[in-house]
Amino acid sequence: MTVDEVEQVVADAGERRFRARQILHWAHARGAESFDTMLDLPAALRAHLKHRFTIGMPATSVVSRAADGTRKLLIRLADGEEIESVIIPADKRVTLCMSSQVGCAMACEFCATARMGLHRNLTASEIVGQIFAARRELDRGEELTNFVFMGMGEPLANYPRLIRTLTIMTSEWGMNISPRRITVSTVGLIPAMERLLAEIPGVNLAVSLHATTNELRSRLAPINQRYPLEDLLAACRNLPIKRRSRIMFEYVMLAGVNDSIADARRLLKLLAPLRAKINLIFYNPFEGSTLNTSPRAAVEAFQAILKNGNLTATIRESRGLDIAAACGQLYAEQHTAA
Ligand code: SF4
């Protein structure tokens, strides 16, 4: 809940509004799992809250740990659905990759989650709950520093709940996380991208591009038929990006599909008018997929062309491959047989 909503609850119970911030402090800063522990609240208010609301942590059914320290959490929701979140430690950063939907309707060809179809949107509490569940699985001395909406689902297709989540995450009465530490990744829902940056200034946007022609992009990411490349890039050019910030574009490297020298040159041309940087991603195969990852030499040659054209191009090394936690592999085990 937001602070306004909790203030209303408190007022309805005949208490003073400052109690709302006390309650939220217990929930977010102290991780309270029961109203009974909120001992600085009047007993009558605690009883009122207990009667009408629930507070608690999501249940994690499985945690798998990869050799590289990546941890995949399978979180069981109240209705029995399961979602995945991934903790990715790297140097001083610990990134949490979060899900926004159960499954996804966007049907990207290279993505395992797409095979599930969309089961349902997550609530804000289920999205925020992933942070609490992840905190439980941190090693001693670890702290979550970055949050990326790159797990299951297209976050901008669950827009109202995403905004509610981001409000809770970034508000000082909530989790007090700087928007600069949060990245929302989208396959390119243009109207929602524009609204997001207006509503949550400073949040980072990552746009999944994956192709340099409409023909190929429509195959790999069918949403391109609705929002074609030229419209997507024109929209990106006009986004209110903060000075010194750039939009991250993501490009999954598929052998013989989108990894040629000609592709790299076209990509350079497409991104030249933008404040952009690009992340090249090794493709992670999953059962039933006919696509293959580009060899490292091809990825490096692709990167070299972009760099020579003055585009910041990084290669994202796959993490957590041995526990199927890498990009595109998030596909709740329960659905594998479906
Ligand atoms: S890549 Fe993202 S948007 Fe595309 S199907 Fe997978 S989860 Fe959905």
Which features does this protein show?
338 residues, alpha/beta, DNA polymerase, domain 1, TIM Barrel, 2 domains, ten-stranded mixed beta sheet, 12 strands, 20% strand, elongated, binds iron/sulfur cluster
Give the spatial strand order of the biggest sheet: 1-2-3-4-7-8-9-10-11-12
From the alpha carbons, calculate the radius of gyration and give it in angstroms: 21 Å
CATH topology-level name of the largest domain: TIM Barrel
Q: How many beta-strand segments?
A: 12
Beta percentage is 15-25%
Explain what this protein looks like in three dimensions:
The chain has 10 helices and 12 strands. It is of the alpha/beta class. The chain has 2 domains: 3-52, DNA polymerase, domain 1 (Orthogonal Bundle), CATH 1.10.150; 59-335, Alpha-Beta Barrel (TIM Barrel). The strands form 2 sheets. A 10-stranded mixed β-sheet has the order 1-2-3-4-7-8-9-10-11-12, covered by helices on one side. Helix 9 (261-271) links the parallel strand 10 (247-253) and strand 11 (276-282). It starts with a helix and ends in a 22-residue tail after the last strand. Residues 104, 106-108, 111, 113-114, 152-154, 187 line the site of iron/sulfur cluster.
